[in-house]
């Protein structure tokens, strides 16, 4: 963790603090312009709405503005995985003048702020609230647009970012449910203004007399205060704005719209673990926001995410089914807004762009999302940065891994991070766990189906290798080993019977029939290949499985080898990428353990024995996950259950591969089903002698 940083806000005194300009930051919301001046502006407000805003909500909005501004002004010390623990987290000490210091220094609100913000942005927060002197009137933050119309009787405040999810939410509320809605937008960059206005007009044109009211909020500051791009605390400012506007309208709820895969924050790869991935609408954050706003309001206040059980493709279907597909091109999903140009509104390399494109294809709506709007096409163009290559490949690999989980127990054991959300969602843990599992299985299927679609569309270019070697389609097709290709193709007669790897894809041929490409069942194909290479030789299933685990390790260590006389394509092997990400993800397990320890300390301070026991149980699960990860390719499991699991997993993998083959070559599938016997000592045994070519082709 970084050293302590003080953020001195407004006219707060600094008694007992030796100010250090190299360490500390000053911010203020009023007074003369200067390097430390922040401008908060709520636009398109009607005068009737600004009456009787409680002091506690005015304080809330100012606190959130200071937190958001400090988040941008104080850079994180490192963004690499190796320095993640020390350099990423900041130790932030705020001194903030408020109208109601006794309330804000209370234990309940203090603890809710520290806990929620700490999880949201992955930092340590400390707050000291002092009495505000010479407070600015709240109307000073407002820009009135009083045309004599107060929008009727609004029923709901909806946070509207202009992305696909919030767009679908607005369409649901305004067009499908016919609700009177206020859409609140935090205008974080002027680059999005035109696109926001276009969406506003398109929604209004569809809604007619039920057109929503749009309220925009800006936070402007000196460019010298823009160092950190992650802006993890932005959603705290966002919800504080929405809650304050809801209070102006005498409403008691705010709605975010975000798909569940993004909200639940299951790490895509080691590059986006923990707070490195957005937690804007994580169930724990939503629960924390609700607690904070309820304390500020002095009564129950609801923060909702109605899309928690939707995938991104499901969100897109809401838009298309409502006949609003023309709005898709005007929406903005990219997190790298600083790269945005008039021609390229999306970078095509960040996790959000990747998620968007896969979902568009899965929802069969990509014709409404011009590929020209992406600086880099996710599927067919080269990626210059290694982290971009890994991000795209690992995104797909995670979908493959989830798809291969046969039941909910395997899923939770493989992705233990997701179990931390169960207690923050409504329902008993069993039913919630099932919903989470179903959500990710749907998402995995959508991603894999989208990938299959794109491979089909580009199969000729893939086969002819006219696409860049490190584009995602080539990465998938040629994953698993370094691909060496000769400068001049060589014609060669193919054997009648082969089951072998060519590049990163399994290819099979039986009795001289047409070749079959075997995809999506790699593990089973590996096992079949092993058995065909050793006819009539029984081998321990545990030796086979352990051997392949060791091979996975070797693939990582031996990558980027070059054979003399051949050209090597610079791809990111998909199988290896997943393995490397798993190994690096141990760092996240450790950080999760640290979070659990902090939560245990809080529970002990409250003498909450039941919570301590539950957290210790979670720590046990994390420890088991760490031990399993670092044991890859090494130690045998001695318990009977583990041995049975290995046998069952081996049999299932082989059967899945044979089932796949049955769709394309029934004689081959029937032969393998009859000739391969699984059990403690699997074997391939056949009455007639068949010679199989099983050696991989890497020089084709």
TrEMBL record:
SUPFAM superfamilies (UniProt xref): Adenine nucleotide alpha hydrolases-like (SSF52402)
Enzyme Commission number(s) of this protein: 6.3.4.20
Pathway membership: Purine metabolism; 7-cyano-7-deazaguanine biosynthesis
A GO BP entry: tRNA queuosine(34) biosynthetic process
Reactions listed under catalytic activity: 7-carboxy-7-carbaguanine + NH4(+) + 2 ATP = 7-cyano-7-carbaguanine + 2 AMP + 2 diphosphate + 2 H(+)
Residue runs in coiled coils: 586-632
Signal peptide range in chain numbering: none
Keywords, in A-Z order: ATP-binding, Coiled coil, Ligase, Metal-binding, Nucleotide-binding, Queuosine biosynthesis, Zinc
PANTHER family referenced in this protein's UniProt entry, alphabetically: 7-CYANO-7-DEAZAGUANINE SYNTHASE
Entry protein name: 7-cyano-7-deazaguanine synthase
């Amino acid at each position: 963790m970084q050293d302590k940083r003080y953020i001195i806000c407004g006219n707060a005194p600094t008694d007992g603090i030796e100010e250090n300009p190299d360490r500390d930051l000053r911010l203020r919301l009023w007074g003369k312009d200067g390097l430390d001046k922040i401008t908060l502006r709520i636009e398109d407000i009607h005068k009737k709405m600004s009456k009787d805003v409680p002091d506690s909500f005015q304080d809330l909005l100012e606190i959130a503005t200071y937190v958001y501004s400090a988040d941008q002004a104080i850079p994180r010390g490192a963004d690499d995985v190796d320095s993640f623990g020390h350099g990423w987290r900041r130790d932030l000490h705020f001194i903030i003048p408020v109208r109601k210091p006794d309330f804000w220094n209370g234990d309940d609100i203090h603890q809710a702020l520290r806990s929620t913000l700490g999880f949201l942005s992955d930092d340590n927060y400390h707050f000291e609230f002092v009495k505000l002197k010479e407070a600015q009137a709240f109307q000073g933050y407002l820009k009135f647009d009083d045309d004599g119309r107060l929008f009727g009787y609004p029923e709901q405040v909806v946070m509207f970012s202009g992305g696909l999810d919030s767009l679908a939410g607005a369409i649901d509320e305004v067009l499908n449910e016919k609700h009177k809605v206020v859409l609140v937008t935090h205008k974080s960059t002027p680059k999005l203004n035109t696109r926001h206005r276009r969406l506003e007009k398109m929604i209004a044109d569809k809604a007619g007399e039920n057109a929503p009211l749009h309220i925009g909020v800006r936070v402007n500051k000196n460019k010298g205060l823009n160092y950190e791009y992650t802006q993890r605390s932005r959603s705290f400012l966002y919800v504080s704005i929405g809650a304050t506007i809801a209070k102006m309208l005498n409403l008691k709820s705010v709605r975010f719209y975000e798909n569940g895969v993004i909200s639940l924050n299951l790490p895509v790869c080691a590059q986006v673990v923990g707070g490195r991935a957005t937690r804007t609408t994580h169930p724990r954050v939503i629960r924390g926001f609700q607690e904070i706003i309820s304390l500020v309001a002095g009564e129950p206040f609801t923060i909702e995410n109605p899309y928690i059980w939707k995938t991104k493709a499901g969100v897109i279907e809401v838009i298309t089914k409502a006949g609003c597909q023309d709005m898709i091109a005007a929406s903005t999903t990219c997190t790298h807004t600083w790269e945005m140009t008039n021609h390229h509104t999306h970078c095509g390399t960040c996790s959000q762009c990747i998620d968007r494109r896969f979902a568009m294809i899965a929802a069969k709506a990509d014709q409404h999302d011009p590929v020209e709007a992406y600086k880099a096409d996710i599927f067919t163009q080269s990626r210059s940065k290694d982290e971009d290559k890994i991000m795209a490949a690992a995104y797909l690999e995670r979908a493959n891994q989830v798809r291969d989980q046969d039941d909910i127990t395997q899923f939770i054991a493989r992705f233990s991070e997701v179990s931390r959300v169960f207690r923050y969602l409504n329902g008993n843990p069993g039913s919630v766990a099932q919903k989470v599992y179903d959500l990710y299985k749907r998402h995995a299927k959508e991603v894999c189906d989208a990938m299959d679609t794109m491979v089909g569309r580009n199969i000729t270019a893939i086969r002819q290798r006219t696409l860049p070697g490190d584009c995602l389609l080539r990465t998938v097709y040629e994953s698993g080993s370094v691909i060496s290709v000769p400068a001049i193709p060589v014609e060669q007669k193919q054997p009648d019977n082969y089951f072998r790897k060519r590049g990163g894809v399994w290819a099979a041929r039986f009795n001289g029939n047409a070749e079959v490409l075997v995809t999506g069942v790699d593990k089973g194909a590996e096992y079949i290949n092993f058995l065909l290479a050793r006819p009539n030789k029984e081998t321990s299933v545990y030796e086979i499985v352990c051997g392949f685990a060791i091979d996975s390790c070797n693939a990582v260590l031996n990558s980027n080898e070059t054979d003399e006389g051949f050209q090597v394509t610079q791809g990111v092997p998909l199988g290896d990428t997943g393995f490397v990400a798993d190994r690096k993800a141990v760092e996240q397990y450790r950080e999760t353990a640290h979070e659990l320890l902090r939560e245990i300390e809080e529970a002990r301070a409250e003498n909450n024995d039941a919570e301590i026991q539950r957290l210790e149980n979670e720590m046990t699960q994390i420890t088991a996950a760490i031990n399993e990860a670092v044991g890859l390719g090494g130690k045998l499991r001695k318990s009977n259950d583990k041995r049975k699991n290995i046998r069952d997993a081996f049999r299932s993998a082989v059967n899945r591969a044979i089932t796949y083959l049955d769709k394309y070559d029934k004689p081959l599938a029937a032969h393998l089903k009859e000739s391969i016997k699984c059990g403690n000592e699997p074997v391939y045994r056949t009455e007639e002698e068949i010679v199989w070519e099983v050696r991989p082709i890497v020089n084709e």
